[in-house]
Structure formats: structure tokens, C-alpha cells
Amino acid sequence: MAEASGENFGASGGALGNLGVNRCVEPFTLVILGASGDLTRRKLLPAVYNLALDGLLPENYVVMGFARREYDDAKFRSIAREGIEKYSRRPIDERVWPQFEKSIFYSRGSFDDPAAYEALRKRLEEVEKERGVTGNRIFYLSVPPSAIRECVTHLRNAGFTRKNADARPFSRVIIEKPIGHDLASATEINDCVAEVFDEREVFRIDHYLGKETVQSILVLRFSNSIFEPLWNQKYIDHVQITVSEEEGVGTRAGYYEEAGALRDMVQNHILQLLCLTAMEPPWSLDAEVVRDHKMGVLNCLRPLTGRDVDRDVVRAQYGPGLENGEQVPGYRREERVRPDSTTETYVAIRAYVDNWRWSGVPFYLRTGRRLPKRASEIAIHFKGVPPVLFNADCAVEGNVLTLRIQPDEGLSLRIATKRPGPQERIEPVVMDFKYGSAFADQSPEAYERLLLDVAEGDATLFMRRDAVEASWKWVTGILDGWHTSGARWLPEYSAGTWGPIEADRLIAGEGRRWREV
Ligand code: BG6
Fold first, then answer.
1. Of 5, 392, 486, 501, which alpha carbon lies 20 to 30 A from 321's?
2. DSSP 8-state assignment for residue 269
3. DSSP for 357-391?
4. Phi, psi of 495 (to 5 degrees)
């Protein structure tokens, strides 16, 4: 397929989602519960550092780590430095580091020990006074779901919470996924959090929502006049949403065995992409309005239960195969995976949004590990033109608009054109826009944007309680269907391939095929 130059489809205006515009952040303390974990080193501290580097933090701020490990401030600062050296999108700037380092502290304690929260409070009061922070606090729960309840209860008992979103200084909480493992457990966690925090003080992270390219879905749809008139069942044949990962389960088998691809990727990231693709135009960018409109999609998602699950959902596990030329083991042979595990590492779903706009349009969703490459994208497949003129033999392929979330962020449009020459030969070409070449600015990491939004109290990019529960409700229907069918083994696909044959059949039955990503 020919590829047209990106230039004429490239962007010429300002950057999307410019972090520097209109940001106004009060001094605050970020308290990370579970600060000795991987997330802190890999994502949170590098995010705070990059915000500092861009001058987006207030002059006075504190980062306080809280965990059981025997660290002190100096040790935690050296861990922060190592993490930032390794994972930050920009190297350490020695002119900024000494100042940055001075805002990092550590308080040792166990999540279940009331005395540790008392000690934390005293330590916070001390360092906040020293650093000129007025008591605004953000509690980041980087803890397993089973510890959320305990942590928020202790936070309340130690007098850290107010349950009043308008109170100053503020007290906010960030909760990481997974929030539960099904509808009942998610509701239980949310109930417990609601006893301690007002919903407007709660920020549930789905880090996909912090990605620049995910934010730009709404910009693409609602700041261009050419797409929206076509964005419905009259013109769209189907939609494919793919989130593929190259890596196997790696060191996360303990978690993954209990989660699987459906809980790990579909319940949150993929359903959020679906919501942004399918939602009605919100009438404002206010957090509640945007989140109401996303709920509108979840409310119309056709439930998949009982036999529908066998018909519309394919699950599978990777077997041995080749990944980048190297032989890799199958899932059941991975360390800490049960040899008879039925945890899915791949899932493909045919979903429908039963409303006026999307009636009859299938949304094919797929995600998996050990696929040929890491890629996330949304592909809108438009209906073909009538079979007359150039399409008399039905050979002209329909237009496809592809939103590449990562890597190689950008978007492309496949259109039909005449191949130069005396014959009437129609060929598809792709007009391609790449963020990397259109904009000089490097995109911030998702966590940068999300942390800044919490500090500002903007919940637009966070999951509201009703959305978390609606997503779990839909996913729990599928889990129950699987439970009832009680499979003792799952179809296998070779590592390094695009999934099982059953997934090809799911889509081929309707005369369609998965895209080559
Ligand atoms: C996480 C999942 O939420 O998202 C991981 O738990 C997955 O299993 C990760 O690898 C993917 O995130 P990203 O940003 O690398 O696409």
C-alpha cells in the first residue's frame, strides 16, 4: 500500500493539552502510601520530577513516602534519584536536583498500625512547616486492593480526612487500579472509601486517560467538523480497539494469575477508550459533564451473559513461541504460574453499544500478551461506497481512520485513489500524521498530567465511582459466563503471533478481519 506524505495532513497549530496553560496549583504535600513499591520509582517520582523541571509545581511542595521498609530520608532520596535516572523521560538536571531533593521525605510505618499514622502526622506537620506548605494533602494509595479499606480508615482515625471537597486545606485521595476483582468487591471498596472521603475528593486513576493521545480523541472528534457528521451507524461499519503487548507476564505472575487480561486491561483501559470513541458530544468540558456522557456509553453497552459469552468472547493463553527471534515459554510454564492455570492472557470481544448512534455497529475489542508488538489503537472502519462506478466489483476498500495511541502516536486515514496510468486502477493510500514529527514538544507522561490535575482538583481524567462499577458489572457478566462454562483449558496461541484462530473466526464470521497493527 502506498503511503502519502504526512506533511499535508500534519498539524500546524499549538500543542494539544499544553500542560503550561492556565495551571494554578496551591502548595501541597503528596503522601505516597506504599512508597517502596515499583510504581513510586518508575512512575510517580519521575512524574513529580518532570513537573518540577517544567516549573509546573508550586514553589512549596513536599513528597512524603510512607511504607514499611527501613528507609530514612537519605535512603528514599537516593532511591528517588536512581528511579528518576532510569525511568524519567528527561535526564537529571544537576541545577534542579539539589532543590528538588530537599522536598522528598520518608516516614516509616505499617499500613495496619495506628501509631504509624500518628507518627506520619507529626512528621508531616514538621516538614510542612519547614517547607511552607499549608496542609493541602494528596494521599496516593499505591497499595494492593485488599489494603485500601485499612488505609483509608486509618487515615480518617488519624484525623487526616475531612469528607468535604470544599474545605481548605484540602485532603484528596488517589486510588490505583485494580479497584476490586469484580462488581461486588469494587462496590465494597467504593463504599468504604465513601465513608471517609467525599466523591469529589476521590481520584481513581486509569493511567490511559492521562495519555496525550487518549485526551486528543475528544479533540479530534469535537474540534473538527468533518468527522462528527459521519460518526454513527449510517457511515461506520465497525470499530476495532486493540491494546497489544509484546512482553509476557514477567515478574507480575502473582498479580496476573488472579487478574487475567479481561480484568487487567478491558475493565479499565479498553472500556475507557470505547467510551471516548462512542460518547455523545458533551455540552461542556466540566468533569461531571464529560463523565456523565461517558456513563451514557457504559449504560448502553449490551450485557454479555450466559451463552452470549461463548459466542461473543474469545479467551486464550500464550503457548511457547518466538519473541524477537528468541524462544520463550508458554504461559503455564512461566514462574509462579500454576501449570493448570486457566487465566487468560488474550481476550477478544464483540461488543455493541445499543443506542441510536451505534445501533448494529460491532466494536471488536482485543488485548493480549506476547503478541508480535506493543501497540494501542482505535480503528474506525467506514462503510464502503455503493457497488457502482469504481466499485462495481466490490474491490474498493472502505476508509479507515486509525488513532494510534502508542507507540508511534498519531493518526492515519486510508483513502482510495487512482493509481497513475492509463488504466482505471484504484488503490488505497494512507495519509499519516505523527505527533513526533508534527510537534517539537515531547509529550508528558500520563502520571505528570494526572498528578497535576489532582493537585488542581480537576477530576475530568479520573474514573467516577459509577463508571468503575458499570464497567465491573459488564465484565462480571463475562466472568460469570466463563465460570459457568468451567473450561479446564483455554485455546492457545503461539507467543509472537496475533492470537488464537478462534479470534479470527469471531470477526471473520461477519466478513471482516482484524487489522494488521
Ligand atoms: C496496566 C496493566 O494497567 O497497564 C499492565 O496492569 C499493562 O498489565 C499496562 O502492561 C499497560 O500500560 P502502558 O501504558 O504500557 O500501555
1. 486
2. I
3. TTTT-EEEEEEESS-SS-EEEEEEEEPPPPSSGGG
4. -55, 140
Ligand 1 atom closest to residue 208's alpha carbon, by position in its atom list: 14
Order of all β-strands in the sheet with 202-204: 104-108, 61-67, 28-33, 137-141, 171-175, 202-204
Protein residues whose CB sits closer than 6 Å to any atom of ligand 1: 245, 264, 376
Write the secondary structure of 39-75 as one string of H (helix), E (strand) and C (coil). HHHHHHHHHHHHHHHCCCCCCCEEEEEEECCCCCHHH
Instruction: Examine the pLDDT at 74 and tell me if it is beyond 90.
Output: yes
The Cα 86–Cα 67 span in angstroms is 22
Q: Which of 207, 269, 293, 381 is catalytic?
A: 269
| Residue-range domains of the chain with CATH | 25-209 (3.40.50.720), 210-508 (3.30.360.10)
Which has more pLDDT, 21 or 380? 380
Residue with cell 487512482: 418
Q: In the sheet where 2-3 sits, what is the strand order?
A: 2-3, 426-434, 410-418, 400-406, 375-382, 236-244, 362-368, 346-352, 313-319, 492-494
Closest listed residue to residue 465, CA positions, set 170, 162, 182, 179: 179
Residue with cell 482515625: 157
For the question of residue 269 being annotated catalytic, the response is yes
In tens, the pLDDT along 395-423 reads 888 999 999 999 989 999 999 999 999 88
Report the SS3 class of residue 290: helix
d(Cα 204, Cα 195) in Å, to the nearest integer? 16
The rounded Å distance from CA 300 to ligand 1 centre is 26
The DSSP symbol for 247 reads S
Nearest CA to ligand 1 atom 13: 208
Write the burial class of residue 307 (CB in 10 Å: 0-12 exposed, 13-18 middle, 19+ buried).
Answer: exposed
CB-CB neighbours of 254 under 10 Å: 12
User: Quick one: which atom of ligand 1 is closest to the CA of 256?
Assistant: 8
Distance in Å, CA 208 to ligand 1 centroid:
9
Asked if residues 217 and 17 have their Cβ atoms less than 8 Å apart, the reply is no
* Dihedral (CA of 63, 68, 72, 75) sign: negative
CA distance 365 to 239: 8
Residue nearest ligand 1's atom 10 by CA:
245
